[in-house]
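Methods — Computational structure assignment.
A single polypeptide chain was analysed. Its primary sequence is given first, followed by the predicted tertiary structure written as structure tokens.
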Amino acid sequence: MSGHSKWKKIKRQKGAADQKKGNLFTKLGQAITLAVREGGGGEEDTNFMLRMAVSKAKEENVPKDTIKRAINRGLGKSDDGAVLEQVTYEIVGASGVAILIDCTTDNKNRTVSDIRKVLSKSDFNMGGGSLAWQFDSKGIIFIDLDDERRSDAEDIMLDIMEISGVEDVQVQEGKVINILTKRESFKEVYQRLREKNYEIADAFMGKKPKNLLTVDQSLRLKVDALRENLLELEDVDYVWTNINLQ
């Protein structure tokens, strides 16, 4: 019986892992489709957004056929007729907590329903459209530091700060450099970093709170748990909050 129980546990864990992998592939495919529609076509050489989206998909071992279908979908060659759009939903909590959820969806009713199910198990509620002003749109770029470059982190930060459009540079755990750019300078900064042969781990447009909110540990943990649960949803791309999660 113990062997049977162990197998059931393994099978359950594998199923959960496969579901997460499937959700990730779906999100990456949606990002490619949107990049084609909003970035100017299906060629990586001329579409900066598509080049980033495909690069992320390849890093996660998304099959070539899946990437091709996502590009074709963006070009209007899909048979299912689904139209993807980006939407942002707002959540409010105690003590002035504000949360923005960036989604990519072909069915907003489904997306809202999934979010409400997650919220039903928390102390948070859908907002009424008055929270976005608390955040600024920024470019966010992450650079991996290999073993040889970690000792040069300070020099690298100074070098990056000299790039026009960079607003802030931080080192996380000595392994990753987090770069914040002006919205309009995102593409140019990204290209300059590539020219300097920095290893870009991720790059995307994000939201930065204008003022960070400090809350007690109990509420901070609740917000952190809510973010994790929301990110498990297939349609959710990013979750932003105005509280300090460190």
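Note: Residues 1-16 have pLDDT under 50 and may be disordered.
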